[in-house]
C-alpha cells in the first residue's frame, strides 16, 4: 500500500535549515517516495493521514541497550558502578530464563516505540528470545550476544553467537542485523578478544563492546595489561571490523588518534547512565576534532531507568554545555543529529534522514502540546522541550507500529503484566 501523511511541520535532518511547513511524506514498500510541500505529491495513494499540528521527524536510533534489563528497572539505584554490576545485576541475571528475557525485551520495545525509537543496538543473552521479541514488535534490532570471555574458556559461547547470527541474518524483513558482543576488556582477555575479531572478520559481523566507560576500568587494564581499553581493541584486531564502542568516556589523546586512524563505526554516548553511575562525560569536542563518529544510546533500564531518547538528547546537550562552559559549542541540532544520523551511520544503516529513497522510519510528535508552542525553533523544541510522551505515530520500514498512541503490533498490556509477575521471582527484598 502507498500512504501519505500530511502534517504541519516536517524536520528532514538534511540540514539545520530544512524545515517544511504544511508538508507531506509519501511512502510505499518500506521506502519514502516523496517529501515536500503538501501538494508536492500528486500520485494516487491508498490512505491519507492528516495531522494538522503534527511534527514529522526521523525516528531515533538507540545505539546501546540491554533491552531485557527493563526487568531490573530501579534495582540497587544509587550504588557505585562495580557494586551495582557485580553485587546486584549479575546475581539477578543469573536467575533469568529465556521467557523472562523475551518479555523484558518486548516491554522495552513498547517503551521505545512509544518514545520515538525505531531501532536499537542490543547486547544481552538468550538472543533468540530477544530476536523473536524484536520481530514481533516491528522494530529494527542490531543484536549481539553479550560474551564474557572469563566464563567462556573454550570459545563455545562465541561460536554459538556466530551461529545465532547465521540463523537470524536477513530474517524479519531484514529488520534484524546480528553482531558480536564481547562485553569489555575487563571481562574478556586479549586472547578472547582476538578470537572475537577473527570470527567477526570471517563471518562479516560488526562488533558491539563497552570500552573506556569508567576510571576503574582504565586503572584495572593499565595494571593488568599495561594498555588502555582502546589500545587493547586495536592490538587484538577488533578495530579491523566495524566497531560500535559503547560509552568511550575516558580516552587519552593517543586513544583518539588510534580511533581516528583505525575505527570503522563510532562511539555511542550514554549520558544519563554515565552521569548516574558517576562515570563521567564524553569528551565530544575532542572526538569531533579527530573525525570520530558519535551516536547516542540509553544503556539498559537497569542503569538509566528510562529508554526515552528525548531525555538522552537533553542530557547530552546539558552535560556538554557544562563540561565545555560554552553553550554554543553543542547545539540542539547536534543532539538531534547524534540520535538520528550519527547512530545510524555507526550501525552501518542508511537511516536518520527523510528523503526519497530512504527507509520509511519516522515518527510524529503532537505539536499541539502546550510545551511545544510556539515553534520559534522547532529543533530546539524537539530537543529541549519534547519528551517521548509527545510521540503519537511511529512508522518503521513503512509499517505503522503505533497510531494515535496505540501500539499496533502486539499487546502492550500483556507485556506489562508478564514483567510485573516475573520480576517478583528475580529480585528479592534485599536487592532493592
Structure write-up:
The protein is of the alpha/beta class and 432 residues long. The chain has 2 domains: 2-59 and 352-407, Urease, subunit C, domain 1, CATH 2.30.40.10; 60-346, TIM Barrel, CATH 3.20.20.140. The protein is 38% helix and 25% strand. It contains 15 helices and 16 strands. It has helices at 81-93, 98-114, 127-137, 156-168, 190-203, 215-225, 229-235, 253-262, 271-276, 284-289, 301-304, 309-324, 332-346, 378-385, 412-426, and strands spanning 2-11, 19-28, 31-37, 47-58, 60-65, 117-124, 140-147, 176-182, 207-211, 242-247, 264-269, 294-296, 362-366, 391-396, 399-403, 406-407. Strand 2 and strand 3 (31-37) form a beta hairpin. Helix 2 (98-114) runs parallel beside helix 3 (127-137) and helix 13 packs across helix 14 (378-385). The mean pLDDT is 95.
Features:
eight-stranded mixed sheet, TIM Barrel, Urease, subunit C, domain 1, alpha/beta, single chain, 432 residues
Please specify the SSE layout and strand pairing.
Layout: E1 2-11, E2 19-28, E3 31-37, E4 47-58, E5 60-65, H1 81-93, H2 98-114, E6 117-124, H3 127-137, E7 140-147, H4 156-168, E8 176-182, H5 190-203, E9 207-211, H6 215-225, H7 229-235, E10 242-247, H8 253-262, E11 264-269, H9 271-276, H10 284-289, E12 294-296, H11 301-304, H12 309-324, H13 332-346, E13 362-366, H14 378-385, E14 391-396, E15 399-403, E16 406-407, H15 412-426
Parallel strand pairs: 1-4, 5-6, 6-7, 7-8, 9-10, 10-11, 11-12
Antiparallel strand pairs: 1-2, 2-3, 4-13, 13-14, 14-15, 15-16
**Silhouette:** globular
| Total domains | 2
The main β sheet shows up as:
8 strands, mixed
CATH superfamily of the largest domain: Metal-dependent hydrolases
The overall pLDDT average reads 95
Q: Between the first and last Cα atoms, what is the distance in angstroms? A: 49 Å
Question: What gyration radius follows from the Cα positions, in whole Å?
Answer: 21 Å
Strand order of the largest sheet: 3-2-1-4-13-14-15-16
Strand residue percentage: 15-25%
Amino acid at each position: 500500500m502507498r500512504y501519505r501523511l500530511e502534517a504541519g511541520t516536517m524536520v528532514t535532518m538534511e540540514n539545520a535549515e530544512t524545515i517544511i511547513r504544511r508538508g507531506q511524506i509519501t511512502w510505499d514498500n518500506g521506502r519514502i517516495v516523496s517529501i515536500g510541500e503538501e501538494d508536492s505529491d500528486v500520485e494516487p495513494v491508498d490512505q491519507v493521514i492528516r495531522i494538522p499540528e503534527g511534527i514529522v521527524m526521523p525516528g531515533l536510533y538507540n545505539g546501546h541497550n540491554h533491552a531485557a534489563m527493563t526487568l531490573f528497572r530501579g534495582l540497587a539505584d544509587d550504588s557505585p558502578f562495580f557494586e551495582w554490576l557485580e553485587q546486584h545485576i549479575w546475581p539477578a541475571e543469573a536467575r533469568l530464563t529465556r521467557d523472562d528475557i523475551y518479555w523484558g525485551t518486548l516491554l522495552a520495545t513498547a517503551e521505545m516505540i512509544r518514545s520515538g525509537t525505531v531501532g536499537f543496538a542490543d547486547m544481552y543473552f538468550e538472543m533468540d528470545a530477544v530476536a523473536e521479541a524484536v520481530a514481533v514488535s516491528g522494530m529494527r534490532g542490531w543484536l549481539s550476544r553479550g560474551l564474557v570471555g572469563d566464563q567462556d574458556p573454550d570459545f563455545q559461547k562465541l561460536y554459538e553467537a556466530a551461529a545465532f547470527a547465521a540463523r537470524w541474518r536477513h530474517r524479519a524483513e531484514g529488520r534484524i542485523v546480528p553482531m558480536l558482543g564481547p562485553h569489555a576488556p575487563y571481562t574478556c582477555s586479549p586472547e578472547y578478544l582476538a578470537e572475537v575479531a577473527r570470527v567477526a572478520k570471517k563471518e562479516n559481523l560488526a562488533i558491539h563492546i563497552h570500552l573506556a566507560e569508567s576510571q576503574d576500568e582504565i586503572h584495572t587494564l593499565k595494571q593488568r595489561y599495561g594498555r588502555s581499553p582502546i589500545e587493547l581493541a586495536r592490538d587484538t584486531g577488533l578495530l579491523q571490523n566495524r566497531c560500535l564502542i559503547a560509552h568511550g568516556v575516558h580516552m587519552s589523546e593517543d586513544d583518539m588518534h588510534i580511533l581516528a586512524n583505525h575505527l570503522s563505526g563510532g562511539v555511542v554516548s550514554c549520558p544519563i547512565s554515565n552521569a548516574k553511575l558517576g562515570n563521567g562525560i564524553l569528551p565530544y569536542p575532542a572526538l569531533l576534532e579527530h573525525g570520530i563518529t558519535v551516536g547516542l544510546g540509553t544503556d539498559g533500564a537497569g542503569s538509566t531507568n528510562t529508554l526515552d531518547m528525548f531525555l538522552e538528547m537533553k542530557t547530552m546537550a546539558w552535560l556538554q554545555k557544562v563540561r565545555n562552559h560554552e553553550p554554543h559549542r553543542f547545539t540542539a541540532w547536534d543532539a538531534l543529529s547524534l540520535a538520528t544520523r550519527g547512530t545510524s551511520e555507526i550501525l552501518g544503516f542508511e537511516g536518520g534522514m527523510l528523503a526519497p529513497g530512504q527507509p520509511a522510519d519516522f515518527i510524529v510528535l503532537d505539536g499541539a502540546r502546550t510545551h511545544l508552542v510556539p515553534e520559534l525553533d522547532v529543533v530546539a523544541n524537539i530537543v529541549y522541550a519534547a519528551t517521548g510522551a509527545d510521540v503519537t505515530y511511529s512508522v518503521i520500514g513503512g509499517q505503522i507500529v503505533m497510531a494515535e498512541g496505540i501500539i499496533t503490533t502486539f499487546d502492550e498490556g500483556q507485556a506489562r503484566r508478564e514483567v510485573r509477575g516475573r520480576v517478583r521471582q528475580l529480585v528479592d527484598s534485599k536487592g532493592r
